[in-house]
Specification:
The structure holds two protein chains of two kinds.
Chain A: H1 2-11, H2 13-30, H3 32-35, H4 67-103, H5 105-120, H6 123-133, H7 138-165, H8 168-175, H9 180-216, H10 227-234, H11 242-270, H12 272-276
Helix pairs in contact in A: 1-11, 2-4, 2-11, 4-5, 4-7, 4-9, 4-11, 5-7, 6-7, 7-9, 8-9, 9-10, 9-11, 10-11
Chain B: E1 7-17, E2 26-36, E3 40-44, H1 51-59, E4 68-76, E5 79-80, H2 86-92, E6 97-100, H3 104-107, H4 114-125, H5 130-143, H6 149-152, H7 162-174, E7 180-184, H8 192-209, E8 212-217, H9 220-226, E9 229-234, E10 237-243, H10 244-249, H11 254-261, E11 281-292, E12 301-313, E13 318-322, H12 329-336, E14 344-349, E15 352-353, H13 359-366, E16 369-372, H14 386-396, H15 401-414, H16 431-443, E17 449-453, H17 461-478, E18 481-486, H18 489-495, E19 498-503, E20 506-512, H19 513-518, H20 523-531, H21 541-552
Parallel strand pairs in B: 3-8, 3-9, 6-7, 7-8, 13-18, 13-19, 16-17, 17-18
Antiparallel strand pairs in B: 1-2, 1-4, 4-5, 9-10, 11-12, 11-14, 14-15, 19-20
The chains are: A mainly alpha, B alpha/beta.
Chain lengths: 280, 559
């Protein structure tokens, strides 16, 4: 099972590249304190130092802070928020979607109307509003990203449950006297996980983008260095000092791209029927 | 019947190779046959025998580049089909050769009007102006027996029934009066009464156009009904070919003999069942209505799936429920199991009305009523090992783990599998083996009543017989009562003591298997019986014997 999984995953070369980049980002996040022991907020050199000058790799910003250090420490925030908010979104989305799909009827109606309520408000506007209300902090940013990210996951889980619910092996589980929680958790959920995992991997990428956008607007956690904040802070000097916004921008681009590639690889590996199409 | 010189298709030494790593190297190996004008050749075989591959090769529809013709030729109109260019092949398809597919529900483009789809073939191949083509479409629709061609021409496929769609498919295939018609299991997805009409239509069109017809089927009843000549295929080889009379009545090859012996038929050897004592199950006036397309505030259309259905099952009795699709037979079975809640009536099982019980109160009865499902590929959870699947019932009822797994192994042996099957996943088994696992799962709870919902309709004939024999054997050994739901009267007659015939949600006739089969009372039952293909053909005496013998001596076969 798992060997087949890796084989299918490895067949997608992009996915392997994505995985390597992602491993690099994780490494950066884990060892940021060792690589750049001083706080990324500290002024370590002269302001406006271009890349590879004044003892910096990627130059310094308007206050003389090391950009490379900011990127290493920012990786932490991006990954942390991306993963925790996706986990929270999964918990909300899959639970609601599963209940809606399994019970159908009125329960389904009620849950799906509730879901649509969230979907009708533009994601970003809602996230900005929530962070603004709850004052920016890492918790409120994570929570607000989770709140805007769960509806698509709920819809997906609902669809999977709806179709698996009427499958004969689920009916067999009912007739052999399994309890409802056992049917939901042990019969249906494992069979619906593949598309949900794939969707979740892409949700991580969106969450990182959302976090960057929030920080760009100055709505990130004021105590944590983040890529979005770095771009936001240097946008006024973009013409004089391109490196200040360029490197964090590239960091966001590469990370999101890597996650998307991994997500695609997961899709190939977990949904073999789709993967075979077009690849022969 | 026809030893004419007008050979339309001459297939010589056809060999089709499969990609590496497939079950065998060749899908089809060294197949030879000819079809003449006015002749209907039936190609019979079980799934995987290469019969469809042969047809697809002739049509140039093989899934290239993985599967391709490795050797041989198919001569149509004096030229080899396989050496023709793509453009020539395209001209041939629809022009000289027409094809009808198995699944009428998916063979038509759902977004195109019926008339346009037929018109497409004419536009591609014939030099006709729009008015002439329109006339021809109407002509064709009328010729295949569709009512009101003018309005039908403008309808979309979803408005048509399965039988009507198959007629449209036939009209499309015949649009250019092909010399050869290839029909790939054209009636398998249809009800038996519709099947009869379609078979008649194909025969009539053949006579009118003098076509050669290559008819692929797995059903010997159909073969007996329509074939002039028969070719029997097994694992890619043509093992026997001859006139219908030769193959059906004096089969030579052991495989043909086995297939014919496996054809379900009413068996006399069954002892009459004596209904004694209290019924185990007594269903009274059961009614079930589904509402379709209803929304939050509006009410949907109502569909009565079961209407005033009354039925009793005694301990040890097998009751066959027979009906066409949509007759409510599955709904009835599901009501007994509590998968659907009946809207009215009583379902009294051993003194308790199941229909009034809530979820919790129903729980103990789950153990006593079990179900075997239709689709062996969908009824086993692909994520769990077979042992866990079979043991799931006892585990849910609190049997200790080790005991439940030990019992699962025993049951797997009882249904003719090896105990080591418990350690494997469902996808490692064939359809027949999976159905055995499904039966083992149902038996794990020691039920008193087994509801079998079309348990063999997804299986090949020879496997079908083995599973039927297994069910028959088990119910005798364990004294089970069984409700056997099927669309096939022959299968029902073979396993049931009592038969109930359902039509549009009502039971129209109940009687012993013998009564219903030999002296049907209700016109619908008579119609159903009359529609069974191949009535005039009797399974040869020596083979009947073989079958009856096998039914009595159960064996652990490798279905």
């Amino acid at each position: 099972m798992s060997r087949e999984f890796w084989k299918a995953f490895a067949r997608n070369r992009g996915a392997i590249i994505g995985l390597i980049i992602l491993a690099g980002v994780v490494f950066l996040a884990l060892f940021a304190d060792l690589l750049y022991p001083t706080s990324p907020w500290d002024m370590v050199t002269r302001p406006f130092a271009p890349p590879l000058s004044a003892g910096t790799l990627m130059g310094s910003d308007t206050l003389g802070r090391d950009i490379a250090s900011g990127i290493a420490h920012g990786a932490r925030v991006s990954l942390l928020i991306g993963l925790t908010s996706t986990a929270a979104a999964l918990l909300i989305g899959v639970t609601l979607g599963a209940l809606a799909g399994f019970y159908g009827g009125r329960v389904d109606d009620a849950i799906m109307r509730f879901t649509e309520l969230f979907q009708t408000i533009p994601n970003f506007v809602l996230a900005v509003m929530l962070v603004a209300i709850f004052t920016p902090s890492i918790t409120s940013v994570t929570a607000s990203i989770a709140i805007v990210s769960w509806p698509p996951l709920a819809r997906l889980a609902r669809g999977e449950f709806l179709s698996l619910r009427s499958r004969e092996f689920v009916q067999a589980a009912i007739t052999t006297g399994q309890s409802t929680p056992s049917i939901i958790l042990r019969e249906i959920l494992p069979n619906s996980m593949s598309p949900i995992i794939v969707a979740a991997s892409l949700t991580v990428a969106t969450a990182i983008l959302l976090e960057s956008a929030l920080s760009f607007l100055g709505l990130g956690d004021p105590n944590m260095m983040s890529w979005g904040y770095m771009i936001g802070a240097s946008r006024t000097v973009m013409r004089q000092a391109w490196w200040m916004s360029f490197f964090p921008g590239v960091a966001i681009l590469i990370t999101v791209l890597a996650i998307n590639l991994v997500g695609e690889g997961l899709n190939d590996a977990l949904n073999p029927k789709l993967a075979r199409k077009g690849k022969g | 019947m026809s030893e004419t010189d007008n050979v339309v298709l001459d297939v010589r030494g056809l060999t089709i190779s499969l990609p590496e790593g497939a079950e065998r190297a060749h899908a089809v190996e060294d197949v030879n046959f000819t079809i003449a004008e006015n002749e209907l050749l039936c190609i019979v075989g079980e799934s995987g025998s290469g019969k469809s591959m042969t047809a697809h090769a002739i049509m140039g529809l093989l899934p290239a580049p993985h599967v391709k013709v490795a050797d041989g030729e198919a001569i149509l109109n004096g030229r080899d089909v396989f050496t023709r260019s793509e453009a020539e092949q395209r001209a041939m398809r629809g022009g000289d050769v027409g094809m009808i597919f198995q699944e009428p529900m998916t063979a038509l483009n759902p977004l195109m009007r019926v008339g346009e789809q037929i018109d497409e073939a004419l536009r591609a191949h014939a030099d006709m102006d729009a008015a002439r083509r329109r006339e021809r479409v109407l002509e064709l629709l009328a010729a295949v027996g569709l009512p009101d061609p003018e309005s039908l021409r403008r309808s979309y496929p979803f408005r048509l029934s399965g039988g009507q769609r198959q007629r449209v498919m036939i009209a499309m295939a015949l649009a250019l009066e092909p010399r050869l018609l290839i029909a790939d299991e054209p009636t398998t997805a249809l009800d038996v009464t519709t099947q009869k009409q379609i078979l008649e239509l194909i025969q009539r069109m053949q006579r009118e156009l003098g076509m050669a017809v290559m008819f692929i089927t797995h059903d010997f009843g159909v073969v007996a009904e329509i074939a002039d000549r028969v070719a029997v295929m097994q694992e890619g080889r043509c093992v026997e070919i001859g006139t219908a009379d030769e193959v059906l009545n004096r089969p030579q090859h052991p495989y043909t003999r086995e297939l014919i012996a496996a054809v379900p038929h009413y068996i006399e050897h069954r002892d009459a069942f004596n209904r004694e004592g209290e019924p185990l199950l007594d269903a009274q006036n059961v009614r079930k209505v589904f509402s379709l397309g209803g929304g939050f505030l509006r009410r949907g259309r109502e569909l009565v799936a079961a209407d005033d259905v009354s039925l009793t099952i005694h301990p040890g009795e097998t009751v066959g429920i027979v009906g066409e699709s949509g007759s409510g037979k599955s709904t009835l079975g599901r009501c007994l199991l509590g998968l659907h809640r009946a809207d009215g009536g009583q379902i009294v099982f051993d003194g308790t009305d199941l229909n009034r019980l809530g979820r919790r109160a129903f729980h103990p009865f789950r153990q006593r009523i079990q179900m075997v499902f239709q689709d062996p590929y969908a009824s086993l959870n692909p994520r769990y090992k077979v042992g866990r699947i079979v043991a799931q019932g006892p585990l849910a009822f609190g049997t200790p783990r080790s005991e439940a797994y030990a019992r699962a192994r025993e049951l797997l042996e009882l249904v003719g599998l090896d105990a080591s099957a418990a350690e494997r996943f469902p996808h490692e088994f064939s359809g027949g083996q999976r159905q055995r696992i499904s039966i083992a799962r149902a038996l794990a709870l020691d039920p008193e009543l087994l509801v079998a919902d079309e348990p063999v309709s997804a299986l090949d004939v020879s496997v079908q017989t083995q599973v039927l024999d297994l069910l028959d054997d088990i119910r005798h050994r364990l004294g089970l009562a069984m409700m056997f739901i099927t669309h096939d009267l022959r299968v029902a007659a073979q396993v049931s003591d009592t038969i109930a015939v359902m039509q549009t949600g009502r039971i129209v006739e109940v009687g012993t298997s013998k009564e219903v089969f030999s002296n049907p009372q209700h016109p619908y039952t008579q119609e159903l019986l009359a529609a069974i293909p191949g009535q005039n053909w009797e399974i040869p005496e020596d083979l009947r014997h073989l079958r009856a013998q096998r039914a009595r001596t159960p064996r652990g076969a490798d279905a």
